[in-house]
Design a protein that fits this description.
Elements: E1 6-12, E2 15-21, H1 26-32, E3 42-48, E4 51-58, E5 76-80, H2 92-102, H3 109-116, E6 118-124, H4 146-157, E7 165-169, H5 187-194, E8 199-201, E9 206-210, E10 219-224, H6 229-235, H7 237-241, H8 249-258, E11 287-290, E12 297-301, E13 304-308, H9 317-322, E14 330-335, E15 341-345
Parallel strand pairs: 2-4, 5-6, 6-7, 7-8, 10-11, 11-13
Antiparallel strand pairs: 1-2, 3-4, 5-14, 9-10, 12-13, 14-15
Helix pairs in contact: 4-5
């Protein structure tokens, strides 16, 4: 408003009402600046002249999990994304170094011990660079055929030892519809990946349960590539000023607090479903993993581990346009027995 207060219009099934957040109530005022279109909020306050004067602003958020879930056996999970195979900037030599480490062929004794106990590898979208994703992309492509890009991907992943479970979802660069939720990679294009027995192709987003047994319920891993991230970083002052593109755990925490991966309708292309919104965070995960920002970052929020994945692509002209600052060839490795995270570096 002219006086510096904030007015929001909220609605439910009974109608609409304006709510006013006074600039002098600093905590509530700061919270109000985090509100985005279309999200769910609650308010408490006094009603006067058909306006609610807010005393408390409530977000869905996630409760603090009672404990940091751990398993009794020594098992590791590795997380990566944004391979962009087919692009001239794909860092193949470094990715092969990562594969060699997974296979126990390089590293010191402690690093080889970690590699030996890796049971899961998550690849969270943009497996290939795709074709026609953005203007003049063909000038950046080493492999200009999408099926050949996936063939190359399969050839690389086939080198990984077969006892590692590889879980893959798609992203905006993959051969899929852009609208979310995205189905698994299309067999017509990514057929060679379907032939690898230790590769599991899943939706974006997905909940994946890992390391369960008769005596242990396992870990619920929420994976989402991150198409909506740019909208919130551009439109939320807190995220923009705190450089969330370089500190992507901030956007993961932000969306957990909203309990939705894309609460604003225009933040990502979305296919509505009459029965369910697949982008709602109904179940509280143990681990929340994303990609898109091409930077490795991690954080513990209410006993949920937040992980954003690095990439295997050097900085391109398109990355410069989108404002991403890649920090490639870093792989977060989580010890499921201790929940400790190590960042393994495979760059020069």
């Amino acid at each position: 408003t002219k006086s510096g207060n904030i007015i929001l219009t909220i609605e439910d099934l009974t109608g609409r009402v304006n709510v006013l957040i006074n600039k002098n109530k600093k905590d509530i005022y700061d919270d109000a600046k985090l509100v985005v279109f279309d999200e769910v909020v609650g308010v408490r306050g006094l009603i006067k002249n058909n306006i609610i004067f807010v005393d408390n602003l409530l977000f869905p958020d996630i409760p603090i999990k009672k404990e940091l879930k751990k398993t009794n056996e020594l098992v590791y999970a590795a997380f990566t994304s944004d391979l962009h195979i087919g692009n001239k900037m794909f860092l193949e030599k470094e990715f092969l170094r990562f594969i060699n480490w997974l296979n126990g062929e390089i590293g010191d004794d402690s690093q080889k011990e970690i590699a030996k106990n890796i049971k899961y590898l998550f690849i969270v979208g943009d497996v290939v660079d795709g074709v026609g994703v953005h203007p003049e992309q063909d000038e950046e492509l080493e492999i200009k055929d999408i099926t050949q890009q996936y063939q190359k991907c399969a050839e690389l992943l086939k080198k990984i030892r077969s006892d590692i479970n590889i879980i893959i979802c798609g992203g905006q660069h993959d051969a899929l519809r852009l609208a979310e939720p995205q189905p698994p990679l299309d067999k017509n294009f990514a057929g060679p990946l379907y032939e690898l027995k230790n590769v599991y192709l899943v939706n974006n987003p997905s909940y994946i349960n890992i390391n369960s047994s008769d005596n242990f319920e396992g870990f619920d891993v929420l994976i989402y590539h991150g198409a909506s991230f740019h909208y919130y970083i551009d439109n939320i002052e807190f995220l923009r000023l705190n450089k969330a593109r370089d500190n992507p755990h901030l956007i993961l925490k932000f969306l957990l607090q909203k309990r939705h991966l894309a609460p604003t309708h225009e933040s990502s292309l979305f296919i509505p479903d009459i029965n369910e919104d697949f982008l709602i965070i109904n179940k509280i995960p143990d681990i929340f993993v994303a990609g898109e920002m091409h930077r490795s970052d991690n954080y513990l929020y209410n006993n949920v581990t937040l992980i954003n994945c690095s990439c295997w692509q050097a900085k391109t002209k398109y990355q410069e346009k989108t404002g991403n600052n890649p920090d490639p060839c870093k792989v977060p490795i989580i010890n499921l027995k201790t929940r400790e995270i190590k960042i393994m570096k495979f760059g020069e």
